[in-house]
# Entry
Amino acid sequence: MNQSQMESDFSQDADRATEAPSPPRQYVSFTVGDACYAVDIMSVREIKGWADITSLPNQPDYVRGVLNLRGAVLPIIDLKCRLGETMTDPTQRHVIVIVSINERQIGLLVDAVSDILIVEDDQIKPVPETNVKKDADVFTGFLTEKDQMVAMLDLENLLVSQIREFDGSDIPTNQ
Amino acid sequence: MNDFEQFRQTFFEECDELLQRFEDVATTLQPEGNDSETLNELFRAVHSIKAGAGAFKLDRLVVYAHELEDFLDQVRGDLIGLQADGPALIIQSGDVLRELVENAQSGQEAPDGLESVTLEKLRQLNPKKAIEVTPVAVVENAEATRTSYEIYFRPFRSMYETANEPQLLFEALSDLGDINIHIDTSKVVELSKLDPMESYFSWNIELCSDCSVEDITAVFEFVEDDCELTIKAKTISEADAEEIVKSSSVDDKSPDGAQVIVGKSAKPETERAKPQLGSIRVDLEKVDQLVNMVGELVIAQAMALESISSEIGIAQVNQLQALEDLTMRTRQLQEGVMAIRMQPIKALFSRFPRLVRDLSTKLEKDVTLILEGEATEVDKTIIEELSDPLTHMIRNCMDHGIEMPEDRVQAGKKAQGTVRLSAEQRNGRILIRVSDDGRGLDPDKVVARAIQQGLIAEGDELTKEDIEMMIFRPGFSTASAVSDVSGRGVGMDVVRRNIQKLGGRITLDSKKGHGSCFTLALPLTLAVLDGMLVATAGERYVIPLSSIVETVCPAPSQIKQMPDGGQVLSLRGNTIRLVDLCGCMGLSRKGLTEPLRKLAVIVETEFGRQVGIVVDELLGQQQVVIKSLETNYYNIPGVAGSAILGDGRVRLILDVDGLVTMTPKPSLSNFDKGQAIEAENQFQANATRGQSR
Amino acid sequence: MLLIDGEMEMSKRVMVVDDSKTMRDMVSFTLKREGYEVVEAEDGIRATEVSGVGIFDLVITDVNMPRKDGITLTKELRMKPQFRSTPILILTTEADATKKAAGKAAGATGWIVKPFDPDQLLSVVKRVCR
# Structure
């Protein structure tokens, strides 16, 4: 499929991302490097240990490749790399969080899963303006849990940005 | 109705079956003494078509089908007798119905008066006037004034016997406006005398709404015979208090007298004149799911086998045998399941005799069509996808291939031309051939045309195959004028693309003056791919077997370096461009030893060009289950999909055409960066020109 | 067919009986979109087989079908205890009194006139089934 097709598909998905939240929601939190992130538990399909990944040619670095999950072929995204830091050096102890976004299943490579958080909407604070290190659209907010700041991930935007980057001619060098 | 548009195709497929059934049954009709089941079948066929046509708002079809249905209803109800020409008339009415359906399907307007003659004849046999379809009259309130209604509702026991629920009716009423409900329990008797099946309640309901009385009675439509219902209306202004009393006075006696069961649903099981073949209709989706599940089973079994077989030694003969048995049975299951989707290709071929007949007349040529191998079974999708390409090819044969009778005779052939359409299964593939004994390709004309279109240069050497492949180039046509028979713009390149999308190939064999033969080679099944597993720079990939022409291990002397950094292979006098798979896939050879002699897998691309994909090793043939990358990711250039192999690993299936147009990154170990960029630019320039020299 | 008896499901189960696949597809589609669980049968005989396997909250049946028609089916279902209070809707193509009366006489709860659009179908369903 060509790029503009992909963009329009995904921007539609992104538009649906904002919803009016109501009762407390559950989130799965996990660590990536020194930071802590969380995603809505409704998106999480399962947690899997690190397994053999088949690399995909000419994709951005953070697309580690694809994985066989009981017969389904899923892409695995290195979350650390995707958020602008170094690539993960995966070991058996690393974990893949399988999430479902708009009928696609994708695996997020993270260091470890921490906890399941039950969060009221008013506990979530908006992303501060000063946080320049990370890509602000990728987060829906953040909260403080036991002195640790947890950033809530907007999965759809995480991938929409990916599409914009993915342009046939803009292939990052491998080595 | 947009919601239902997706079912259009199903509807027309069903119409096809129903019309076929109608025709088959109609031919067995007698002027009298027809079996009631026969008549019922005719009625039901038209009835179903009418219902669906109504849903898709195909008015003309509905009107015709309605009259025909009505006629057949009366015939089966013994109210009309078929006379001597009755059967023929019914057959004819079926033909007209078919034409109307076909027109509806194609969106064309059928010729005026197509159905009038038939309808007239039907009416003549029908002593009663045809019942017109009267749409339910919708009575609107003249002005939407707010009215206050008082409704008295007392259901009889018969209402509960038909599972109607007062609460649901009240909910429906509340949709009309503001409502207040008061229950009257005064008629409830003491417990010892209570009959649980009897109805003791009644209700008084106040409804404030701008709806009409008809809207209210519509809510009670189903139960109007089973209750007492009174509606009084007062407009809010109270200036004129209108009293509309509507009551249904029928007591709770079941209306046995009104038992007019339309049509004879006599014996549920009847002896049929024609034996029904043992078959059932199955949702294609269910079959696909089943095919997928079996595909997974095959993978799982292969994985299990692999993990176990490494542990087992020759000594455990029994276990080995059990494993082999399991493998064989799994394969058999897979074949069996794949076979469910298979249908005789006759379904595809059946439309062509008529096409050839029609074209013969139109073109004033004498042509006969010979069909062979109609019983050959192919995957259902192939039947669907091949319909257009084959139609196009047969039109081509008739239009450009077969000569006019006089010309044929002059050339020493018989005046009647032959078009042959055949299908056979061979070596796990389906081979379909479309051939004619017409004038064949004129190589000189083809070459001239190709030069004219800039596809080749003067003085280029072309083999017979090269010339035959020319016609698959986009826009290529040797016809000086595009006739309306073969159509404009639908070239053989589109046909070829469609065949390739199915995983197949098409080739042409033609001899000037003698005729042409197109051969389509298609895979037997579509979810499963025969692939060749290859390895390069430590990674493995699958190349579809159908694209592979041959594999060679070229001697260094056969490989020539080009100034742009690319390589070509000299093979039996042909120059074949080499594509470095390692480079295209962006792999690095750092730390890996390069094999002494690499292999080139010669594949055929979209345009019939041959290209060699350079790999390190061949690992053997594998049948794999195709998993699309698009399900969870996106299409990647150079990759057709993915496959899960026996070891559980995912391997990418290469898209040969895509691969060949990609700009490979030259291996940085061989050039310095400056040269690499230079080479890359050159390569890109060449790739866009679509040539390599 | 995977019908789990005795399980308390929140969604309603509907039996759709029609020999026209197009009709079945359209009705199923509309109902499933509203959260109903749909079981299809292509004629009265199949419907009878299916009826014995689970609990249904609604039956929608065509009248004209081979092997066993909708009226006969309705009568037979009404004689089964578990269908005595199940709403049964028949599909008719005319606003014709005789056909509706026949249906009522057989015990049908109501009818739906073909052709219908999704909203019309759902509004009738709402009137007879929660």
